[in-house]
C-alpha cells in the first residue's frame, strides 16, 4: 500500500464551533456524510459552521467499492427528518445547505419525494438559504427526476464518480450512461444548475479523465469537482496513484479547456467542498 502524501493529511480540530455543530446534529438525530464517509475536510467545514446532511438512514442498498457507507438493509424512512434538517439549517444559520443521501433502491421513487420534502421544509424556515442536493441516480426514473425539478433546488449534483473504463469496477450496481442521462435530463427540463464530480487515483489515464469531462460537459454539467481517492479501509479498492500538486494544476487547465467555468479541483476536494463558492 502506498504511503499517504503529507498534503493529504489533515489535523484534528476541536473548538467551540466544531462542538456546536456536533451538538446540533446530535440533538436533531441527524447523520452527515462528513462522519459516515470519513471526509478529510470534516473539521474544516465544522469550523465554518456547516456540514453536509445525509438523509434516509446510514445503510445503502448499493455496495460501491470505494465508499465507506455501510451496504445493508435500509431503515424505514423517518418522516420527521425533513423538518429536523430544516431546524438544523436554521440553528446553524446556514446560507448554503447541502443534502445528500444513501442510495435507496428499495423505495419506488428512490427517495426523490424525501429530498423534495427536505427542500420544502428548509424553505419554510430559511427562505433565503440556497440548497444543493447530491442525489443517487434514481435508476434514471423520469418521475423521480421530475419530483426533484418541481422542488427546485439551487444546485442538482449527481456524481459520475469515475471514468467510463473504471466505472463498473468501482460502481458495479451503477451505470455510466445512466448517470450522464440524469444530469442531461435535469438540464434539459429546468434551469437548475447541475454539478458532478469524480475521484482520481483508481487507475484511470489523463486521456480518460479528459473524455469524462467532455461527456459531462455534453450532458450540460455546469459545475465540476475532482479530488483524490483515498482508500477508506483494506476492504475497499486500493489507490493506484496519488496525483501530485502539479498534476492538479494540469487538471484545472483541462477543465478550463473543456469549457468549465466553475470547478473545485484539488487533492482533498470532495463533492460539497466549498460548494457555495461555485454557486455565486
Structure in a nutshell:
By secondary structure, the chain is α/β, with parallel strands linked by helices. The chain contains ten helices and eight strands.
Q: Can you offer a commentary on this structure?
A:
With 280 residues, the chain is an alpha/beta fold. The chain has a domain at 6-197: TIM Barrel (Alpha-Beta Barrel). It contains ten helices and eight strands. It has helices spanning 16-27, 33-36, 42-47, 81-92, 112-125, 142-151, 164-170, 176-188, 206-218, 245-258, and strands at residues 31-32, 52-55, 96-101, 130-134, 155-157, 193-200, 223-228, 262-265. The protein has an eight-stranded mixed sheet with strand order 1-2-3-4-5-6-7-8. Helix 4 links the parallel strand 2 and strand 3. Helix 4 (81-92) runs parallel beside helix 5 (112-125). The radius of gyration is 18 Å and the shape is globular.
Throw out a few tags for this protein.
single chain, 280 residues, alpha/beta, TIM Barrel, eight-stranded mixed β-sheet, 10 helices
Share of helix, binned:
25-40%
Please state the overall shape, judged from the principal axes of the Cα atoms.
globular
Number of helices: 10
How many strands in all?
A: 8
Largest sheet: 8 strands, mixed
Q: Major sheet: order of its strands? A: 1-2-3-4-5-6-7-8
Beta content? 5-15%
Find the structural class using helix and strand composition.
Answer: alpha/beta
Question: How confident overall, as mean pLDDT?
Answer: 85
CATH superfamily of the domain at 6-197: Aldolase class I
Give the CATH level 1 class of the domain at 6-197: Alpha Beta
Low-confidence stretches: 33-38
CATH architecture of the domain at 6-197: Alpha-Beta Barrel
N→C terminal distance: 40 Å
Instruction: Could you tell me the CATH topology label of the domain at 6-197.
Output: TIM Barrel
| Rg on CA atoms, Å | 18 Å
- Spell out the helices and strands N to C: HEHHEHEHEHEHHEHEHE
